[in-house]
Amino acid sequence: MGSSMKSSLILFFTCSLFLQVAYAVYKTEVKCESLPNSDCAFAISSTGKRCVLEKAKKPKDDLISSEYECKTSEVMVQNMKEHIETDECIESCGLNRNFFGISSDDLLEPRFVSKLCAPACYQQCPNIVDLYFNLAAGEGAYLPDICNKNKKLKSSGAAEDGVDAPAPSPSFL
């Protein structure tokens, strides 16, 4: 095989590889505005920003109706991109797909905290735990401390029955 033929084959394989990588990147891109509302809450875009469901007023037959739209927030997530939360995590963590708005007030609800701190959520759903970890931090609290406090309240019988909360700090944070 001549040198010209080898160069052509190398060029062909290089171009082929480039196209495969470009197609893979294009295919997996997550853009909040392109997500259906049912996948929006707790999703993370390809740029690493959280997706949020927002009310949008749209004209409909000369009336203004309120609908929801998936939008890109300004909140960056470290070390996580192109993520759409699984149904298992949504259920395990006590959340729902039609989630509109998020509040640190959820961390005051023993039943919610029990689900969030349960191993099925806390150890298996890093995106959701990261979100609430940061919400707690914004209020000057530490999520593992909240989980420990909830666990102690339940073991003393002072809190509602639920799933035992683990105490470890998430290893992915």
Verbal overview:
Keywords: Signal. It comes from Solanum lycopersicum. InterPro entries: PAR1. By secondary structure, this protein is of the alpha+beta class. Helices cover 43% and strands 15% of the residues. The protein contains seven helices and two strands; from the N terminus they run H-H-E-E-H-H-H-H-H. The chain has helices at residues 3-28, 37-40, 87-92, 110-117, 119-122, 126-138, 143-155; strands at residues 49-60, 63-76. The longest helix has 26 residues, at 3-28.
Supply database-style keywords.
single chain, 173 residues, alpha+beta, 2 domains, two-stranded antiparallel ribbon, 7 helices, 2 strands, 15% strand, disordered C terminus, NtEIG-E80 protein, signal, PAR1
- Counting DSSP H or I runs of 4 or more residues, the number of helices is 7
The separation of the N and C termini measures: 54 Å
Tell me how many strands there are: 2
Order of the strands making up the biggest sheet: 1-2
Which stretches are poorly predicted, pLDDT < 50 over at least 5 residues? 8-27, 159-173
How many strands, which pairing sense, and closed or not: the largest β-sheet?
Answer: 2 strands, antiparallel
What structural category arises from helix and sheet content? Answer: alpha+beta
Specify Rg, calculated over alpha carbons. 22 Å
Mean pLDDT: 79
**Helix content class:** 40-55%
Shape: globular
Order of helices and strands: HHEEHHHHH
Report the sheet-strand fraction: 15-25%
